[in-house]
Structures are given as C-alpha cells and as structure tokens.
Amino acid sequence: MEITVPNIIVSILNINDDKYVISKLKELEQQLNLNDVEQRIILEIYESVNIGSIISPTFIRKKYSYVFEDDILEQYLPQDAIDSAITQVKISQAKTSLKLNLLDISSNLDSLDPLELKDKVASLLENELLITKTEDTPDILVPSEDAYKDVIAGADGLSLVDRRIESYAGKATPSTVTTILAFAGSFKSTFALNIAYLNALDGYNIVYLSLESTAAKLKQRLVLNHIASTTTDRNELIQAKWVRDKQLTKPLQKVYNRYHNDLMDKLGGRLLLWDEEDIQYNTFLEMNHTLQKADKIFKERNGKGVEAIILDQLALLKNTRAGGRKYTYDGAVLNDWMTYFRKQALNFLDTGRETTVFVVSQINRESFTEASKPRNKGRYDMTAASDSNEIERASNTMITLFKDLETQNTLLVNIPKAREGDMPDNPLQLEVYGDYAHIGPLKAGNLTLEDLELEAETFSLESLIND
Fold first, then answer.
1. Phi then psi dihedrals of residue 360, to 5 deg
2. Among 254, 262, 295, 424, which residue's Cβ finds the most Cβ atoms within 10 Å?
3. How far apart are CA 294 and CA 309, in angstroms?
4. Which residues contact 66 (CB under 8 A, 6 or more apart)?
C-alpha cells in the first residue's frame, strides 16, 4: 500500500470515532502541505460531522476515485500506524521542497540580487530536514539539599502592572507566555508599554517589538507615562496630543526634557524599543537574528541577555512566511508564530535559557459585542482571541482588557486563563489615563473628567499667551 495523504485521510476516517477523526485531521492540516483535492475531502468530512452523520471512507474513495487509482485493494492503515504514516509523508514533502528550492536557487543564481538570494537561502534553512531537534533530556527527579529553595528560585517574575492581577494570576515567570487581549482602542498597547516600563525599571532586560507603532512614538508615550508615574505636581502632567500638535509651553518643554533624561538614566539601557523598520521578521530565521541582536546588545551592556520579549501585535505577522511551509489561511501562520514564541519562552534561541514572553492580540468582534452587554460587561472568556486558536493553548496567562465607557478612566480587566493561579469572579477595575499612556493611580492624584477639561482649557489659554 502506497502511503499518500488521501490514504491517510480515509484510514483516519475508517477509525469511526468522531473526536479522533476531527483531532487527527486538524493535526494533518498543521503538519502537511495539502493540495486542493485533499483540502476539499477534509472539508467534506468536517461538514458531515457537523450535521451528525459522518461520511464513510468508501464514499470518499468512490467520489474521489481518481486519487485512489493505485489502491485497488482499498486497504486502510491501522490506527497505531497513522502517526508514522504522517511522519513519512512529512519527510517526503520536506525532501521534495528542498530539491525544488535548491533547483530554483541554482537556476536563477545569476539573476538574483543579494536580498533575494538571502531570502531564498533563509527559506532553505527552515526546511524540516535541516532543523536539528535532538536535545539532551534532563532528569529533574533527583535529590536536592534544599528543594523548597529550588522551587521559589523560579517564582520571582515580572510585574503585570497591578498587584490585584498578580494576586490571581501570579507574576509572569520565565518560561511562560502571557497574552494581552483587547478590542480596538482598549489600551492593549498601553498595557504592554506599562509592563515594559515597570519591569525595565525593576532591572529586567526587555525587547519590545512594535509592529504597529513607531519606536519614536512609543518612546514619547513612555516619557509621558514616566511623568504620570512620578510627578506629584498636577501641573507637570503632559497629554500626548499636546506633544503631537507641538503645543507644549516653554515650562512644559522643560518638564518633558527633564523627565525624559531622568527616565533614560533610570532605564540604564535595559529596554529596547524596536519597530518594523529596525527589525527583520518575515521568517523564523529572521526573527532569530533579531532576537540574537537584542541578546548581544544586552550582554554587552550588563551581561545578562534578553529576559523578556513583548510582541505588539500578533496579527501583523499574518502576511509573513513564518516557518516557510505552505499556509492556507492567516490563522495557520499566526498559530505557528505563537508556537515559535512559546519555544522562545522555554528555550531561548536553543541556548537553554528561559525567557518571559508577552503577546498583544486582538479580541474578536463577537466576543466584544457579548462583553459589551450590561450583564456581561468586560467578561471575556478564553475563546475571545481573534488572531489564533493557538493563543489559548500556548498562553500560561490570558489577560483581557475592556474600556468601560460608562465610568471615566476605568479599565475592566479579566483573567480567563491563569495556569498557575485563579480567575476572578468579576472583572477587576483599574484606573487608566490614555492621555498620559498610564495605567494605575496618578502620583498627582486622581483626575475627574472635569479636571481634564479644565486642564485642557487652562493649557489652551497658556498657549495663546505664550504665542
């Protein structure tokens, strides 16, 4: 019996266990490159399961007889041989892909410019056959002089902005992935930037990869947040739009400059803000190079290397080549990226080091609509992510943010998943000041909507006088 994808599909179908069939077909879609006919067959099986009457393998053989011409005896693989068959086809596809890529490079070598050649070689190196996955497997079940000390040594982690969040989810420890989810305009990037700010000040080396905003704008917001986190003088607070519109008065310009330099001194080079112009990220290999560059910079500065990665945001990786395999939909690309960053948390660049990863992602519209209803306000669950179904599996902690339009300066925070902790019965209420890129109470005291309006009027008057 020749091992082909159609033969594997009907062998899976022949097991006659709906749950097994669905899970194994999904695994097949993730591991192999499927042609149009194979995708149609799988879709037809899914549709039959949905209506409660799964189609038979004999029906598939008859309907798509042209792909079973060499299988006259209608044989099926036993269940314990299916995984091995998938692996065999995966290896065969990898070899074919490698041959085609090598032929393509050799045939077009003279016409390729350096960047095109680099891209093709990068694709070559990401072939499954060229990736070494064999590692020594440690044995942790050994005696220890102080077992409890070993446990708590790994318990120190990164701040999640608010202690109430940490009381449920715990801190973000090495080897974990924390996903920050929100609908558009609900402060997810602000939350991520506050995480970067607090933990860099606390001594952690953090690389912030911004695929949505420029590094210059992030730096500006970081300074405004530092002012809001530090000053006890309300007159020193600076709104982002004042900087954007170049309307700072001379006194406020001095305030901005002073806090800017104070922040740079306190960060001590422990935070890298990189946007898409600064990094390469089209493939896993390019992202590896980006992270290697960050690691080298930190080691030169303070000897520790990268300790945390913040990706803002996941959806903007959907048009990349990721692992280099053939993707049939955006979600498959993003699933692979979530797996990639999960691996970086567990084994950073195959160095044996653990890191902490934060991923910013989008809430789907249906979940936002449901969470906007009065009885469900701010209550997102684990299925709320719109970018990737791998988010739920790969994340140790999922934090959702909901902008409360009924209560000023309020952010509703839910924790639908906390692998090392608990989930709150009701969303937590945090103060948020988007004008200052700040989450949490202000050192200068809480501001009401009337305060902000009066502040804006006073600022406008001062601008006119100074002009």
1. -95, 130
2. 295
3. 10
4. none
Q: Which CATH class is domain 154-459?
A: alpha beta
Scanning 154-283, the segments in alpha helix (DSSP H) are 163-169, 188-201, 215-230, 240-244, 250-267
Give the other-Cβ count within 10 Å of 314's Cβ: 24
CA nearest neighbour of 54 among 98, 113, 102, 14:
14
Residue 113 is encoded by which pair of tokens? 């410019």
With vertex at residue 173, the alpha carbon angle to CA 413 and CA 360, rounded to the nearest 5 degrees, is 45
How many whole angstroms separate alpha carbon 194 and alpha carbon 225?
8
Quote the tokens at residue 433.
């000041």
Please report, for the chain, the start and end positions of each structural domain, with discontinuous segments joined by +: 5-130, 154-459
Q: What is the rounded (10 degree) CA torsion for 45, 50, 54, 55?
A: -50
Q: Are 85 and 27 in contact (CB under 8 A)?
A: no
Can you tell me the distance from the alpha carbon of 25 to that of 102, in angstroms, rounded to the nearest whole number? Answer: 31
Q: What is the spatial distance between Cα 171 and Cα 179, in angstroms, rounded to a whole number?
A: 13
pLDDT per residue, tens digit, the chain (467 aa), is 678 899 999 999 999 888 899 989 988 888 888 999 999 999 999 999 888 888 999 999 989 988 887 665 678 899 989 999 999 998 998 888 888 888 888 888 888 887 777 777 766 766 666 665 545 566 768 887 788 776 665 567 999 999 999 999 999 999 999 999 999 999 999 999 999 999 999 999 999 999 999 999 999 999 999 999 999 999 999 999 999 999 999 999 999 999 999 999 999 999 999 999 999 899 998 999 999 999 999 999 999 999 999 999 999 999 998 887 778 888 899 999 999 999 999 999 999 999 999 999 999 999 999 999 999 999 999 889 887 789 999 999 999 999 998 888 999 999 999 998 999 999 999 999 999 999 999 998 765 445 555 455 544 445 444 44
